[in-house]
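#lab-general

N.A. 3:47 PM
ok so I finally got the sequence cleaned up, no stray characters, all 318 residues accounted for. can someone with queue access submit it? mine expired

B.Y. 3:52 PM
send it over

N.A. 3:53 PM
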Amino acid sequence: MNTSVALCTYNGERYIEQQIDSILNQTVKVDEIVICDDGSTDKTIQILEEYSKIVPHIRVFKNEVTLGSVRNFEKAILHCVGEYIFLSDQDDVWVGNKVESYLVYFKNNPNVNVIASNGYGIDEINNKISLPSVWDIPEMLERNNLEYDYFTLITQYKNIATGASMCLKKSFVSEVVPFPVITGYQHDEWMATIASYKGSFAYLKEKYFYYRIHSSQQVGGVFFTKGDDKFFQVVQLYKLVNKKFMLKVYKISLRNLALCYSTNSKLYCYNGNEVFLENMNSIKLKFLAVKRMMKRYYPLAYFTLTITDKILKKRQLT
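B.Y. 4:20 PM
back already:
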């Protein structure tokens, strides 16, 4: 099985060596590492060039103009020649058997085109972060006997597929490029959306990477405060469980549904797939159901929020 890694960098001198070393030290070696740098001004390029001198299968591309993370990953993926393409951020660390485990899963599940997985959290000095994350949601749903499908979960609640954990087949690339460029929307969510819609997305609950939380990262927000179970409560609301929750949970749910509605609207405009229009209708029904429950349990707050949200244009389906 021929393998590539698409790694994107931008001013990543502090952590890039740890990430590259973790890729090079896999139990099953990768065949190439394609690195696209998006205009680093620190020592990132110098570090990469040193690696490329001693590791011949590392190829480094320096962008003439800044592309941004979405287009940069698209470029890196298109330069990959391997049958299986692993995505990599510059500041994380891979578990030693990640590549081996993914390839075994692909071999045993030939209909799968995209794999993502759970992961650990680490801080700037490699201390583990013991907090619940969005990656724990599938397991939590199963523990509570709540049925779900990945497409609905990703497009109507929360993207559980982080790019740092993803691998896709080369044959699937043409299905997802070019990536849509939508504010606040990432390439990993797009790939997971298309793969899950086509029934070819897999999620591994084992933890195969260390996701670093630090002050200069571009995308975060995957961990929840200890003892804060509102993310699960919101999932229950999406399943329209008829029970009373704290007022803030209704407000969070309405905000999330409104954001998902807006994203699906933009995706529908992007590629015209009717599934996104159907998703918008489904989200609208859930949005109205949550408002009904909020009105039932918190009538005064409901009327106040309805008026202020309309004035401030918050939590609106537009």
